[in-house]
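Propose amino acids for all 949 sites.
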């Protein structure tokens, strides 16, 4: 017999933090230590969380570091999925940071001679989900263990450079906080392997360093790009006067600014992110995200036949009435106007004075259109042959369809190490030039994600390149003509997940820039689909995948969509997609939709759908038509280029139709008890101006509601968790012993009202007493952002949607059965699920295949550490197997492979006068019957039974 006690093995990584007087940094370090302490003593540390994938769509890559002498060996860094290693050209990977305090990475650097790895934590792309880091991590044993070398308050790292001739000399480019000014940004240098750091370049509290490049064979010559930016929840200014290029001729000890209006490189407020590539001491390329506006020509209907929204701003009534109806109708349909707004109807409204042409512009103009449609210059390539004394812009034409309006998200340029004329720039898509950047060709492949973030060029093999993008990794050996996809890692960045009730049930998820997918929860993680051509997960829609609601009566009816409220009703069986976003009226201010627009199917009637803009909308017919059931439920919009003053969460009481709660991105929580006829603000006593990440109406008490707030967009990492037992009139803070980390989601167990689960930017927690105390729940789950949680009620599974490591699953049946009485007991054994006997147990179909092997998990709870004897006893009182077990305080799991011990088999055969058959794998499996599990210590014993059917 084999009985294994599953105990969480903690690999202790001792982090030696450099001294830091910053109080916010000290607070974060204190919370990380607190979490590790709680993890060691957690009651649920033995409850296993299993990763169920998917992997095919992967997640955002930020950097690649390849061994040039052996290019089949390399490291890949994911934005929020940690560091992974391969030595077989990407056929398989090993995660190296699962025991680290973070999975968030901005850049990596590897000293291949000595096996030293540097990881700059905190993503460098400044996107909505670019998570902060905890400083600089270093490993001297190829990623087996890590130390933290400091710079904890930098939050986001742009680039790391190692002196190839002195591995203890390292330069760090730190971009700093994402949402607030701070001092710890700029360039830092160490000459003692990270024991101490010296800041050698500081511009100001809003300007950090996004890129560094040194001249090959001369580490004394280093170039740095400074980036000034200001991100808020309602606006992102991705450029500024502080953005510039600097040069050092003494390995980063001192710096000189080398860009000015006199030497050919743009300066001022429109200078955005800059990427650098040095070919030698003097030849350097720079790619600039130029945020200055393009020169516009007068755009009236007299000078062009094309209609756009700007035309209508200054159009007279007479000019509007003279428009060709066919042309006007084409414009109206293309831009999503409601059917009632067609050419002749609109002209009649204008004739009667009800509407004016400018209303068309207003109808289309909102923060989202300002963000994506603003005509900026965009990507430009600059070149110097004299070390930055003068710069020359290489591209004569605009490089369109590369950066659009979000060049802050890319900004990487590479030069072929053996040919100065060949350069690459990343964006949408990957572009290649053979003439110094004067013209470009597209290297995009059909099996390659469009958004490119990192690129490695093999200096020893022409055409061998590796691209890191929002969809993982791709490798090419013919300079992008053909690509191979290397997506075996479960690093999906999920925003939202849900489940249906088919058998087996499916899990649905919306991902960052990878759409919405669904697949069976028990699909094996395997490469078998390479042979069959049938990947178990299927795509529903593209874009940035958002929330999902599934009709409980028919799992083929799914509501989901992509960013900014673009939702559809999808029929999976027919493939039909019906666009269902609510539309405002002409002359009315446009609705404001959050990037992650909330939707909700009513539990009382599955034809009723709620959707939140800045107002709450309700459909009684599956989204075919809408009624707006509120005024603005936010504090209102703010001037900016990002939709703000939007709803972020909706909840309806399971007890009564029409008892509705909403939360907004500006901190308002509201309730309606009459289906939206009237609303009341509930957040006056709560912290202000925080993102309401979740409001959750209780299933167990009609007056109870839970609430979580998130300060991520203020660089506030406090955990805000509240409960109300009077419909939100008063709130109780239930954070208690939870370490601080922004909270994304809270759900209440449907069976046990005391059982709660919370997902934060740094992991998962559970409570058995409605938040009086919290337990870390991360056996198998790294310290990664948990964005969403859902419980499949029939299977009693908790599904965990992470933003960086795909989806996890846990059996929470024992947790649901746990009461306060059980928590006080010396020993409690939970009910064991029956299993069905099979003649195939232990018998492979061939000598080269693995046999089917059964097993049962025996879960028990003890309120103290103890030594137990575990016995499996047959109906005739024969002890068929036994072992000794050292238990932890809390939940323990014995995995039993349903086999006889040698002694147990002999005794059973003797007592039953029956010869047992041994399987091909040499084990003898228990026959059908009822068996007793007995756990016994010196002071207590308990027993239960299980059945082999």
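Proposal:
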């Amino acid at each position: 017999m084999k009985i294994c006690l599953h105990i969480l093995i903690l690999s202790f990584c001792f982090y030696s933090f450099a001294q830091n007087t910053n109080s916010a940094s000290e607070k974060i370090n204190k919370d990380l230590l607190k979490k590790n302490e709680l993890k060691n003593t957690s009651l649920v540390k033995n409850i296993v969380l299993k990763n169920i994938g998917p992997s095919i769509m992967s997640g955002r890559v930020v950097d690649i570091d390849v061994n040039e002498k052996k290019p089949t060996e390399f490291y890949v860094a994911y934005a929020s999925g940690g560091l992974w290693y391969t030595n077989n050209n990407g056929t398989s990977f090993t995660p190296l940071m699962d025991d680290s305090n973070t999975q968030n990475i901005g850049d990596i650097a590897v000293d291949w001679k000595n096996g030293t790895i540097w990881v700059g934590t905190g993503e460098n792309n400044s996107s909505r989900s670019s998570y902060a880091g905890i400083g600089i991590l270093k490993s001297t044993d190829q990623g087996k263990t890590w130390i933290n070398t400091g710079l904890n308050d930098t939050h986001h790292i742009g680039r790391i450079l190692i002196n190839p001739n002195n591995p203890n000399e390292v330069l760090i480019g730190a971009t700093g906080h994402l949402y607030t000014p701070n001092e710890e940004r700029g360039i830092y240098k160490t000459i003692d392997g990270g024991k101490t750091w010296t800041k050698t370049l500081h511009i100001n509290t809003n300007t950090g360093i996004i890129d560094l490049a040194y001249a090959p064979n001369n580490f004394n010559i280093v170039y740095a790009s400074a980036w000034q930016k200001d991100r808020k929840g309602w606006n992102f200014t991705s450029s500024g006067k502080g953005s510039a290029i600097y040069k050092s001729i003494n390995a980063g000890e001192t710096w000189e600014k080398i860009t000015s209006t006199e030497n050919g490189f743009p300066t001022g407020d429109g200078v955005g992110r800059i990427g650098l590539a040095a070919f030698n001491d003097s030849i350097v390329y720079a790619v600039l995200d130029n945020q200055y506006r393009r020169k516009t020509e007068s755009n009236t209907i007299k000078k062009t036949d094309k209609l756009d929204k700007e035309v209508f701003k200054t159009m007279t009534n007479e000019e509007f009435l003279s428009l060709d109806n066919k042309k006007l109708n084409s414009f109206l349909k293309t831009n999503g106007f409601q059917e009632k707004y067609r050419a002749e109807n609109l002209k009649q409204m204008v004739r009667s004075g009800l509407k004016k042409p400018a209303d068309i512009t207003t109808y289309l103009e909102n923060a989202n259109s300002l963000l994506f449609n603003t005509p900026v210059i965009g990507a430009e390539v600059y070149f110097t042959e004299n070390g930055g004394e003068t710069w020359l812009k290489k591209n004569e034409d605009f490089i369109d369809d590369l950066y659009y309006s979000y060049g802050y998200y890319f900004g990487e340029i590479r030069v072929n190490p053996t040919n100065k004329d060949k350069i690459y720039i990343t964006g949408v898509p990957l572009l290649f030039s053979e003439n110094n950047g004067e013209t470009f060709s597209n290297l995009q492949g059909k099996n390659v994600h469009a958004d490119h973030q990192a690129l490695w060029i093999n200096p020893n093999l022409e055409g061998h390149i590796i691209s890191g993008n929002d969809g993982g990794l791709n490798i090419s050996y013919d300079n992008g003509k053909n690509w191979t996809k290397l997506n075996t890692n479960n690093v999906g960045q999920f925003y939202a997940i849900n489940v249906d009730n088919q058998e087996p049930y499916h899990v649905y998820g919306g991902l960052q820039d990878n759409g919405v997918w669904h697949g069976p929860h028990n699909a094996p993680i395997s490469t078998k689909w390479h042979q069959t051509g049938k990947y178990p997960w299927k795509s529903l829609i593209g874009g940035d995948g958002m929330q999902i609601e599934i009709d409980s009566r028919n799992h083929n009816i799914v509501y989901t969509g992509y960013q900014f409220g673009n939702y559809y009703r999808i029929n999976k069986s027919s493939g039909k997609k019906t666009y269902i976003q609510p539309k405002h009226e002409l002359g009315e201010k446009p609705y404001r939709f959050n990037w992650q627009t909330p939707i909700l199917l009513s539990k009382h009637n599955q034809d009723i759908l709620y959707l939140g803009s800045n107002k709450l909308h309700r459909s009684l017919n599956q989204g075919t038509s809408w009624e707006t059931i509120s005024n603005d439920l936010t504090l209102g919009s703010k001037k900016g280029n990002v939709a703000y003053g939007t709803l972020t969460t909706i909840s309806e009481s399971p007890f009564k139709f029409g008892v509705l709660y909403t939360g907004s991105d500006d901190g308002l929580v509201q309730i309606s008890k009459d289906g939206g006829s009237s609303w009341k603000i509930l957040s006056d006593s709560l912290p202000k101006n925080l993102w309401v990440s979740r409001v959750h109406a209780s299933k167990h008490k009609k007056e109870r509601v839970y609430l979580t707030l998130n300060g991520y967009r203020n660089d506030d990492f406090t955990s805000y968790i509240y409960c109300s037992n009077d419909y939100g009139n008063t709130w109780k803070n239930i954070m208690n012993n939870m370490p601080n980390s922004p909270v994304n989601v809270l759900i209440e167990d449907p069976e046990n009202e005391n059982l709660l689960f919370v997902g934060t930017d740094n992991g998962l927690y559970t409570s058995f007493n409605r938040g009086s105390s919290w337990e870390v729940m991360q056996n198998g789950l790294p310290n990664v952002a948990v964005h969403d949680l859902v419980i499949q009620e029939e299977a009693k599974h908790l599904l965990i949607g992470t933003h960086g490591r795909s989806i996890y699953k846990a059996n929470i049946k024992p947790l649901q059965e746990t009461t306060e009485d059980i928590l006080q007991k010396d020993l409690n054994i939970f009910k064991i699920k029956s299993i069905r006997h099979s003649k195939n147990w232990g018998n492979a179909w061939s000598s080269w295949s693995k046999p089917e092997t059964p097993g049962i998990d025996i879960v028990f709870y003890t309120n103290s550490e103890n030594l137990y004897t575990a016995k499996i006893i047959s109906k005739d009182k024969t002890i068929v197997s036994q072992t000794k077990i050292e238990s932890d305080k809390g939940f323990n799991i014995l995995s039993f492979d349903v086999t006889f011990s040698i002694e147990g088999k002999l005794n059973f055969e003797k007592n039953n006068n029956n010869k047992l058959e041994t399987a091909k794998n040499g084990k003898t499996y228990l026959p059908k019957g009822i068996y007793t599990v007995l756990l016994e210590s010196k002071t207590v014993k308990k027993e239960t039974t299980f059945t082999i059917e």
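The first strand starts at residue 3 and ends at 6. The radius of gyration is 30 Å.
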